[in-house]
Amino acid sequence: MQNTHLRTYVKKHPDNKMAWYLLGKEYLGEGQEAKANYCFQQAGEVYEAFERSKAPADIWVDYQEKLVEMAEQKEKKHRVRKMWLTLLMLLVLAGLPPADAPGFNRDAADALASALESTDDSTDNESGDSPADDQAPVAKSNVFTAGAFGGGDQGEAALAAAWSGSGPKVQTSAVLGMQVAGNWTLWKRNMSVKYIVQTNSSGKLTAQSYDAKQCNCEPPEVSTEIKRLAQAWTAKQESAAALSSAMITYKKQNGNWPKSVAQLAQPFPNNILGETAPGMTRMFPALLAMHQQGEMGKGKNTAEGTGSISDSPQGKNAAFVDTLGEKPFLQDRLEIIVDKSRHKLALISGNTIIRNYEVGLGGDRTPEGSFVISDKVVNPNGRSNGEFGSRGMQLSDTNYAIHGTNEPNSIGLDESLGCVRMSTVDVEELFALAPQGTQVRIGKDLLPETAMVPEAKDRYRYTLVLKQNNPNKTYHWLN
């Protein structure tokens, strides 16, 4: 691993003890102990602080990858500085204790503060950029992201992204906390604010923790406005995930991308979206541009539903200015998992569980395997209070379906002939979120036990598309 960038940086900033420490770690990894010891001596108290913090080895791997990325992209010097600050923040976070342990590595924090204070701001415009970019007034803007908190993960990556994504045009970057359950992260409507990164009037970045155990302090109260905006942001991400997944289904069925939301929200049987949600029309052009750009760069993977939304400059418009990176947070196509062992049905995006409902099943009569949602029917067989309830979603070309029930006491039990039964409010919400073509996987021991269903006031908001019944067919699902 070549350390040319670090050596150059140290030459220009000989008083930056953090830079000396990082260079020493590089020399030590190359087996050059004499050079490493010299660097550590120059690092002084920074070396002592971070050696006591016991930062894990993968932090250094991440640092090396970032350095290679910087070299390949030949970033301008002011962006290089921002990357350095992000890496330093990662190092401090690596020394944070788990959520159930008190205390905070004050030595590491003080070392970071000292290192940041010694950073030379005068080099920011050496690359010849227009000074107007650095002197732009702070905009009244708030952006959000989310990170995993639990299982040893304290949201380091999300905080680093918020730190590096902040700047003169972003006033506040808020990191919401997702709980961890095994390999899953849990998405909720009322996720707490864990960090806020702010740009002050002087253009300096500050980070405030809002977790008392995390910062070993009494953090201030999160403002009512930020809480309100965070709730709206989570709702918006769910709508974007549903719309994006519906667009992928349309492309797969028709060979071309839809031109409007209306093409997705048609009467049965073309009701890829059974419901529309507020804001879908506004975010449609951004999602379309992202999908089209992703298809150009990745072939047909996105159309087949195996890829995620690309980082397309064309998609970065006003629709997602409130999201860090200006693109949807839930980028992976929606899927459904049914866990027969726990009587749970989850709607997921990648490794994030958006909903985890309790369901009724049929024990061994419920098939295991992979399916897709084909028919989506409102009031199957013409009744909202019949054995299939008010919504039905057929699983591929089978006699099995996910549907409502007129036997609500059977939820959580194995009393069906093989279908998946849901309560009325749950199946209607899932019907609105999961478009036609959504993949369904049924098996055992797949999901956490924790149910994840919003309160009534926080349920997914939608408008039902007209004519979604199917009077020409009598369904004989195995209920």
From TrEMBL:
InterPro entries: LD-transpeptidase, LD_TPept_cat_dom, TPR-like_helical_dom_sf, Transpep_catalytic_dom
Family matches, as SUPFAM superfamilies: L,D-transpeptidase catalytic domain-like, TPR-like
Residue numbers annotated as active site: 403 (proton donor/acceptor), 419 (nucleophile)
Pfam family, one: YkuD
Record carries keyword Glycosyltransferase: yes
BP terms from Gene Ontology: cell wall organization; peptidoglycan-protein cross-linking; regulation of cell shape
Keyword Cell wall biogenesis/degradation carried by entry: yes
Protein keywords: Cell shape, Cell wall biogenesis/degradation, Glycosyltransferase, Hydrolase, Peptidoglycan synthesis, Transferase
GO cellular component terms listed in the entry, alphabetical order: extracellular region
Domain called L,D-TPase catalytic: residue spans: 334-443
Molecular function in Gene Ontology: glycosyltransferase activity; peptidoglycan L,D-transpeptidase activity
The protein's annotated pathway: Cell wall biogenesis; peptidoglycan biosynthesis
Comp. bias regions, Acidic residues: 118-127
Region annotated Disordered, chain positions: 115-137
Family: Belongs to the YkuD family.
Protein known as: L,D-TPase catalytic domain-containing protein
